[in-house]
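[DERIVE STRUCTURE TOKENS]
===
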Amino acid sequence: MKNKSILALAALLFSTLNPQLSTVLAQGTAFTYQGRLNDNGSPANGTYDLRYELHNDATTNGLLGSPQNDFGVAVSNGLFTSRLDFGPGIFTGDPRWLQVLVRSNTAPVFSVLLPRQRIDAAPYAVFAGLAADLKSGISPTFTGTPSFNAASGPPFNVGSSSLVRNLNADLLDGLDSTAFVLKAGDTMTGGLTINASGVDALTATASGVNGVNAVSTFNNGNGVIGTADIGSAAYGIWGKSANGQGGHFNGGAYGVYATSTGGQAVYANSSSGYAGQFDGAVRINFASPFNKPQLEVRDPSDSGFARVRLQTGTRPLWDIAVGTGVNTTNTLRFFSDGNGDVVTISPQGTLSTKVLTITGGADIAEPFKMSEENLPKGAVVVIDEENPGHLKLGTQPYDRHVAGVISGAGGINTGLNLQQHGVLEGDQPVALSGRVYVQADTSNGAIKPGDLLTTSDTPGHAMKVTDHVLAQGAILGKAMTGLPAGKGLVLVLVTLQ
């Protein structure tokens, strides 16, 4: 093929010269190219292979994109048509030149046709370029009712912070106007999820009464912070549910943080289920006066129970409740599932239980007033005839005034302390029964476990009994440990007789 030339090139460009508007016109990046091919000065006829290259200037090798092949193109009277698509990002508004190569369908190589053809904009592409210039300050005025019919995605993007006034936003992002709420005077139904990281999830400020209007602030790291500052009718947080939870709050530092200068900081009500659930530790930080406890559990009925339930896993539960008890009302009850009330305490202080185990000490003691001050622990004391109701240090052997041993020697604490405030009070607890360490000496012989002990002439000490006649009424108890010689502590089972 000799002396081939291409004439009268025409490019019908739609969206390719302006990729910003490609979604508006739904054109894609393809365009139609039409030309005329001469063969030896005459219009060509037949089947040819065409190759197209896109360059950024008229002469140098500034190739853009991938060459486009159109094989087996029918050429009639020199005219042919090809559909080309160099892909996105090619036609950005800068000048472009098309290099055409041609061969007959039997030739092995392509021939380059010169010159390169400058690609100019078609009329609609010119209009599209004008629309793109809106970003640079051109502000056309639309008359009538513009209609956007996008294949997918939003019809347009508003990239300015300026208000778009007098725009009927009946459909925004696929949602009609009923899907949105006003800043004020509107009611939202359904659930609301606010996800925030490192910033405030929500800040709301209002004033009024009855919990609807309260000063509430949702701060960084906290699920809810509510503050009520408007009197006894206000609530920092109000939650009410007919079924399920009255309030459900998750937070980083606190699930719920609420303070109130009057009324309730948190009020939650549920007719079924639980008014609130805390999946985590709960802390109450409040200097409580007598008439305002840190935590109050109250049943509004006089015949009901104020109840706290404790349970681990699926094990039997425990209830701590206040309500009607045995022979009295307003009794504190410890209820064990399967065992009933295992402990009850009456308002008068009467405690009833099945078994009482004391782990803090091993003797039963009463406080007595002493005729002498600061008697040592483990000392043997006797009744002081000169001071009724008082005890003193024992100083005589086989003393039938023996009363007991001052509790607390040898690390053995008092197990049960019996007293009545304002009537029977004293300075030091004296063991009357149980196990206690006593000061002892071997002036009457070595002490062995099982020996009976009585008073000694060594002040405050016990010795073993050798004269059982004299010991009648003077026995302190029975030794449970021995003392070979000298003085020391001996564990005694106190059994006065």
Q: What stands out?
A: The helical segments are 22-25, 123-132.
